[in-house]
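**Folding the chain**
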Amino acid sequence: MENGSRTAPENVEERIKEYVLSRSAAGLPTGVTVLTFGCQQNEADSEKLLGLASTLGFSPTDDPEEAGLILVNTCAIREHAEQKVLSVIGGFGRRKAEDRGLLIGVCGCMPAQSHRIEQLKKSYPYVDFSLDPSSLSRMAEAIGTRLFLGKRSFFVGEANPPIREGIAPLRRRGPLGWLSIMYGCNNFCSYCIVPYVRGRERSRASADIVREAEEMIAAGYRDITLLGQNVNSYRGDCDFAALLARLAALPGDFRLRFMTSHPKDVSDDLVGVIGENEKIAPAFHLPLQSGSDAVLRAMNRRYDMQRYRETVRKLREARPGIVLTSDIIVGFPGETEADFSETLRALREIRFDMVYSFLYSPRRGTPAAGYEGQVDAEIKGERMRRLLALQTDIASEIGKGYEGKTVRVLAEEISKTDPAMLTGRTGGGKLVHFPSPASAVGEFLDVRIERADAYAMYGVPAREPGK
């Protein structure tokens, strides 16, 4: 469905380039800024948006004041995220008043919802266009419709669009890189908006994924994350285990990780591939959501705690020392104190290295939004505090176990607080701070851990970088 759009003029890409040149000649900003909210898939989508904008003549910039095109890539997973995005969009009204030629686009999951499109139309008249996740490739059409026809465009594409290859992302410089292998979701968890805004599962051909991985490795990316709403349900011309094995066999000094996984789709073949390949990071993000079987049924998660515990056992047997992280939703409708106690019990038993916890947020259009037994905000907050306290204690105990050990770390960037320090991560994703020259960024280093707390470790290189 399209709202308020007309066919853009012929040769629209060339005409947009001419427009950008005219702005530059007039001393007006010609940069493109992409503000990204939400998941790693949104980060990957933003790289595509930057790539598309660059082909139209806009130059990437991190400063919206230097931009002639501002793109806000949005998240709809929680109400708080949407309200934050709307606040950011509201702040651009001043820029638009100062520069009527400034283009503002809202992209991603939020404008895939009809009520949000209506809100953008009525309350944000300075937004020129929107593109839902299936319409990102139509950026030139949307911009051209605004510039040359004077019309705002609000694109909502097909529910299950074919995958379009050939959109070259403009990635940030290594060593970390995102690689999307599939899009959409078929799970329809009762609380989740994702299947409604990103459509059903569509998997890329394995040859296209391998080709892109080879290009990334050749370009110096050392840590590549395979992305999908549910990567282990990948079904291209092979399954996810076979794809992962094929990627791990590529030459080069790099490591692979992936997210997000659904516990119901963790096959024995996948566990085996993880156990057999050192290039696959010893890390697994396995969203639990709740430790209560009753709540899991209400969430439509399609596994129970017995199955989840069995999956954890297999992973730890196949890859000793594997780092396990998870997601927890606190205060799902109908969650009793006994249900929440089962979640705390699961944390004590499984001992995740890290948990990403969220207060349940009703999402318009999902079944759970209409469930009875919505949990009071004060109760949700109190439960969250207890969960965070427990998980912090667990993570602190796990961190102490690293003290005195030497770990392999990929140096990712110069510390934001101390230019003499670098920050990096272990294969398991543990954050490490250590002194080293900036030239070591992008290298794998052995670091001896001297101190560790719940969510970070501090150490010194076991040897001088480059030796």
